[in-house]
């Protein structure tokens, strides 16, 4: 791998060229996808108009963009980035490419509380009321996600946090949540079930600034913190004996990194639901693009944002005027690409 | 010749590591391959043990192309122990050694008295009988290495290929493992091929040395023939003095550095 | 086959045999409970009467037409999922591997939902055929993807990731279909929740050949898997054909899981949890791990089903929920109490 040391006045970082290329290429692609996405609506625009109207407060379309289209596009990108970052952290700590926030109880916990909310309120009011879907669902999801994480974390902690035990406890807790969710879906009215299914697939429909801000804040605080933790993650990749030898205060850094992963996933899930596949696939796609040994944090986040933004575009245009939940499309878009990368790399090696 | 590499080309993917190499291993000898890191020693050993298929040339086992012999058949003739192999946690020594009997078992004959006898003998020979019930991960490095060699022995072959059997061992344990290898050779005239890093131990325990650099054999012969000051410079880029080992009478390589 | 292993260690073998007998005992108990307990409790003597010389009494009919098929399906599915889970985790050496990892579960779901929407399938037997076909196609597809460009068979990581990707893809398509079709959603949500109730005898005959074939392949796979667990190089040294071993393993998992989930819904988390329980008593020897996993899987599924019948009268609770609510906490408690046996 080509890498350079960047040294400015006593500070030094290792900079990897492929990482830089993926990061910047990803950002450009992201902006483009968001612009394409923001064209869509009752008032059609060209991509050029999207750009000019965004920055021109006097134009009539400015309001539409600022109040409706931009927040939705931003929610998608930020939620994707947060979930992917969360997945990258967990995969590094568990040293397992199949790990995702699901084993931390976050997304499954959020899903089960939301489905319960829908089914219960459906039974009472004969349908999901507006208040529940706009305020209640995010609150329920945040509560459920954090509660799920606390349960997993608490059960897995035993004189320290062992990566393997965390995974096994996570499996158990996720099994409870998932199956209770399945059962709840059979209890309620089939319309409520469909409503719940849209939410637990992950959807960006009607997302506004109130969905953007929490995720943006979480990312703003947690991205720098997790990047600081990268060094310890690199050490965590090795077996526990080696890690201790490398002098990482393992439990503390592990616990903090997991906490960051939990918060990212919980806030993202509260905004858009547990958008499927992003957290698992983005880190795996990113590490193959960059050809690094373990999930690169920043590039994973960017891949997650691109994947989610691209999926949202497809979700709105594929069956237009019917809009699919974005979480249904992320896998349709991401899975073939991941498989392509898998097969291409296998070919290169043998 | 028991085992022979004829004009083999070896590599991983597009990367060629060894090209056009010839090597013969005579029956009943202990042959040790030496050379700097990345010279293709382990790659060659893997090819000799049919763990790696050559992209050109052939490996011959007892004069027959090894690729045409059924892999289970090969496993009854030669055993190859890879560098630092790993076992699942909790596996006991006896269980590990018993898995060496795999090539002798079929779905209708899972555990014969031959199997049992071979495992017992292998455990005895490596001095592990008392540790048989202990999980592998609780053993010391030297004991663990002996357990793997014991598995290779249980396989009941008279041709053993060992890839750096002394990695991660302290000097005492290195000697212990190599003494064991020599015993195996002395007892039943087994043919042994090893990759070793320590030139002096290699000189002491091998009948024949093969020196490699950049994927080719630079010299082959007895330790006295191979370990000369010129050759060590050629193979390792290292200035050294070769004296006589006061204990074994074999060559002893003393490196000359710039600091004392 | 298992009784002749490890003569070397009489003590260990004794312990393993004791566990085998003990687990078989638990399964027998579960079977008896499953036949006698339900909305209408049937005393043991009446149950025996129904099994040996039925005369058409009310309990004879209940037992022969309802409880017996239900119990038989529970045994079959439990064994199948337990064994498939153990195989899958052994091949991938990944504790997160479940029997559905190769796309089997989602393949079945996709084919069933598609058959409802596009072909108007309405009969249970019809669904199951489509489910089986979907499972087979998905799994073969994943294995082929894993094979692309690789010699000596797919690596476990490629296989697992390809499987996860294909599963997610199929699940996405299934979600899209059920969101657009209410009738399919209604069938799907009950299938998803998992149940062995009201399946009838035909279903058992339908899945039995697949499960039997899968179990046979699993038994053949056990010793190869033992060799593979020492790493690919050592396995090859021991004369094991790695690509063949993986192919047999995948075929077995596909048959077992495909048949079980097509008939009973997505209960594949049984296959996720059961091998971790079985590994505690068997250690890493797959010749013991597979039978233990099968027995534990069947016993767990039946007990969960029995509890589901009595816990919420007059209705029933699906076995999937019961198992998750009772089995998973038990599993977590076990994981906490002792150091887990790693793969």
Radius of gyration of chain A: 21 Å
CATH topology of chain A: ABC transporter involved in vitamin B12 uptake, BtuC
Q: Count all strands of chain A and give the number.
A: 2
Number of helices of chain B: 9
Poorly predicted residue ranges of chain A: 124-128
Query: Strand portion of chain A, in percent?
Result: under 5%
Give the strand order of the largest sheet of chain B, numbering strands 1, 2, ... along the chain. 6-7-8-3-9-10
CATH topology descriptor of chain B: Rossmann fold
CATH architecture of chain B, by name, is 3-Layer(aba) Sandwich
**Low-confidence spans of chain B:** none
Helix content of chain B: 25-40%
Structural class of chain A: mainly alpha
Largest sheet of chain B: 6 strands, mixed
Report the major sheet of chain A: 2 strands, antiparallel
Derived structural class of chain B:
alpha/beta
* Topology order of chain A in helix (H) and strand (E) letters: EEHHHHHHHHHHHHH
Q: What are the salient characteristics of this protein?
A:
heterotrimer; A: 350 residues; mainly alpha; ABC transporter involved in vitamin B12 uptake, BtuC; two-stranded antiparallel sheet; 3% strand; globular; B: 260 residues; alpha/beta; Rossmann fold; six-stranded mixed beta sheet; four-stranded antiparallel beta sheet; 12 strands; 27% strand; ATP-binding (chain B); ATP hydrolysis activity (chain B); ABC_transporter-like_ATP-bd (chain B)
How would you sum up this structure, described in words?
The complex is a heterotrimer of chains A (350), B (260) and C (343). Chain A is mainly α and 350 residues long. Chain A is 76% helix and 3% strand. A two-stranded antiparallel ribbon of chain A has the order 1-2. Chain B has a single domain (3-86, 158-255), classed as Rossmann fold, CATH 3.40.50. Chain B is 32% helix and 27% strand. In chain B, the strands form three sheets. In chain B, strands 6-7-8-3-9-10 form a six-stranded mixed beta sheet, sandwiched between helices. A four-stranded antiparallel beta sheet of chain B has the order 2-1-4-5, with helices on one face. Chain B is globular, with a radius of gyration of 19 Å. The model of chain B has no long low-confidence stretch (mean pLDDT 88). Helices cover 77% and strands 0% of the residues of chain C. Chain C is globular, with a radius of gyration of 20 Å. The model of chain C is unreliable at 1-8 (pLDDT under 50). At the A-C interface, helix 6, helix 7, helix 11 and helix 13 of A face helix 6, helix 7, helix 11 and helix 13 of C. Chain A: It is found in: Cell membrane. Chain A: Keywords: Cell membrane, Membrane, Transmembrane, Transmembrane helix, Transport. Chain A: Belongs to the binding-protein-dependent transport system permease family. FecCD subfamily.
């Amino acid at each position: 791998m080509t890498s350079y040391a960047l040294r400015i006045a006593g500070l030094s970082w290792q900079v990897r060229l492929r990482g830089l290329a993926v990061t910047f290429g990803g950002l450009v692609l992201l902006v483009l996808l968001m612009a394409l996405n923001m064209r869509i609506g009752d008032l059609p625009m060209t991509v050029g108009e999207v750009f000019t109207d965004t920055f021109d407060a006097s134009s009539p379309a400015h309001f539409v963009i600022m109040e409706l289209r931009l927040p939705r596009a931003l929610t998608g990108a930020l939620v994707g980035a947060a979930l992917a970052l969360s997945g990258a952290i967990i995969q590094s700590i568990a040293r397992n490419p199949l790990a995702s926030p699901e084993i931390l109880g976050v997304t499954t916990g959020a899903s089960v509380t939301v489905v319960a909310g829908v089914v219960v309120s459906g039974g009472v009011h004969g349908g999901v009321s507006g208040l529940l879907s706009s305020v209640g669902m995010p609150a329920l999801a945040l509560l459920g996600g954090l509660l799920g994480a606390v349960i997993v974390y608490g059960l897995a902690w035993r004189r320290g946090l062992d990566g393997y035990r965390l995974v096994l406890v996570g499996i158990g807790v996720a099994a409870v949540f998932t199956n209770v969710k399945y059962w709840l879906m059979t209890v309620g009215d089939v319309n409520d079930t469909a409503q719940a299914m849209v939410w637990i697939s992950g959807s960006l429909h009607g997302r506004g600034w109130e969905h953007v801000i929490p995720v943006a804040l979480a990312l703003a605080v947690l991205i720098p913190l997790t990047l600081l933790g990268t060094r310890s993650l690199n050490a965590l990749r090795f077996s526990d004996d080696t890690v201790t030898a490398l002098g990482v205060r393992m439990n503390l850094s592990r616990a903090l990194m997991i906490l960051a992963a939990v918060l990212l996933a919980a806030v993202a899930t509260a905004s858009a639901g547990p958008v499927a596949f992003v957290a698992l696939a983005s880190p795996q796609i990113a590490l193959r693009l960059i050809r690094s040994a373990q999930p690169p944090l920043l590039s994973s986040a960017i891949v997650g944002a691109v994947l989610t933004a691209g999926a949202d575009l497809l979700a709105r245009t594929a069956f237009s005027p019917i809009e699919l939940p974005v979480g249904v499309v992320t896998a349709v878009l991401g899975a073939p690409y991941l498989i392509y990368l898998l097969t291409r790399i296998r070919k290169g090696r043998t | 010749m028991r085992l022979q590499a004829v004009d083999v080309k070896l590599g991983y993917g597009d990367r060629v590591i060894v090209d056009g190499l010839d090597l013969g291993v005579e029956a009943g000898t202990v042959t040790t391959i030496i050379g700097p890191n990345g010279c293709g020693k382990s790659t060659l050993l893997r090819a000799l043990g049919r763990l790696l298929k050559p992209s050109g040339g052939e490996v011959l086992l007892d004069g027959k192309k090894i690729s045409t012999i059924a892999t289970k058949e090969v496993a009854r003739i030669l055993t190859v122990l890879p560098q630092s192999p790993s076992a699942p946690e909790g596996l006991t020594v006896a269980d590990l050694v018993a898995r060496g009997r795999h090539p002798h078992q079929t779905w209708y004959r899972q555990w014969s008295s031959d199997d049992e006898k071979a495992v017992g003998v292998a455990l005895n020979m490596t001095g592990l009988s008392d540790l048989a019930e202990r999980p592998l991960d609780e053993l010391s490095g030297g004991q663990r290495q002996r357990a793997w060699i014991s598995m290779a022995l249980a396989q009941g072959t008279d041709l053993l290929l060992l890839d750096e059997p002394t990695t991660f061992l302290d000097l005492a344990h290195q000697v212990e493992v190599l003494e064991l290898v020599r015993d195996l050779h002395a007892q039943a005239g087994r043919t042994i091929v090893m990759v070793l890093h320590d030139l002096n131990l290699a000189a002491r325990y091998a009948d024949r040395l093969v020196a490699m650099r950049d994927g080719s054999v630079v010299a082959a012969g007895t330790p006295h023939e191979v370990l000369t000051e010129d050759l060590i410079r050629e193979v390792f880029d290292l200035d050294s003095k070769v004296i006589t080992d006061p204990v074994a009478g074999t060559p002893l390589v003393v490196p000359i550095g710039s600091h004392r | 086959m298992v009784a002749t292993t490890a003569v070397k260690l009489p003590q260990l073998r004794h312990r393993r045999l004791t566990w085998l007998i003990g687990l078989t005992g638990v399964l027998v108990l579960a079977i008896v409970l499953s036949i006698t307990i339900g909305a209408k409790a049937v005393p043991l003597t009446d149950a025996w009467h129904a099994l040996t010389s039925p005369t058409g009494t009310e309990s004879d009919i209940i037992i022969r037409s309802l409880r017996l098929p239900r119990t038989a399906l529970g045994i079959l599915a439990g064994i199948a999922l337990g064994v498939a889970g153990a195989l899958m985790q052994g091949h991938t050496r990944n504790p997160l591997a479940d029997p559905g990892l190769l796309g089997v579960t989602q393949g079945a779901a996709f084919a069933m939902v598609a058959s409802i929407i596009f072909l108007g399938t309405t009969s249970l037997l019809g669904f199951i055929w489509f489910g089986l076909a979907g499972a087979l196609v998905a799994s073969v597809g994943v294995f082929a993807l894993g094979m692309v460009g690789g010699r000596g068979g797919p690596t476990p990581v490629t296989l697992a990731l390809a499987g996860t990707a294909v599963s997610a893809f199929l699940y996405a398509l299934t979600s899209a279909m059920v969101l657009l079709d209410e009738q399919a959603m209604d069938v799907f949500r009950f299938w998803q929740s998992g149940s062995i109730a009201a399946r009838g005898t035909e279903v058992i005959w339908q899945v039995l050949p697949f499960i039997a074939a899968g179990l046979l392949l699993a038994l053949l796979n056990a010793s190869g898997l033992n060799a593979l667990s020492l790493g690919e190089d050592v396995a090859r040294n021991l004369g094991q054909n790695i690509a063949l071993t993986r192919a047999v393993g995948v075929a077995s998992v596909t048959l077992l899981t495909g048949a079980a989930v097509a008939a009973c819904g997505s209960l594949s988390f049984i296959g996720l949890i059961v091998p971790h329980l079985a590994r505690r008593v068997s250690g890493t020897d797959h010749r013991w791990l597979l039978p233990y996993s099968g027995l534990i899987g069947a016993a767990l599924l039946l007990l969960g089903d029995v509890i589901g019948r009595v816990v919420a009268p007059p209705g029933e609770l699906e076995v999937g929920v019961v198992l998750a609510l009772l089995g998973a906490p038990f599993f977590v408690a076990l994981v906490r109490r002792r150091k887990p046996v790693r793969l």
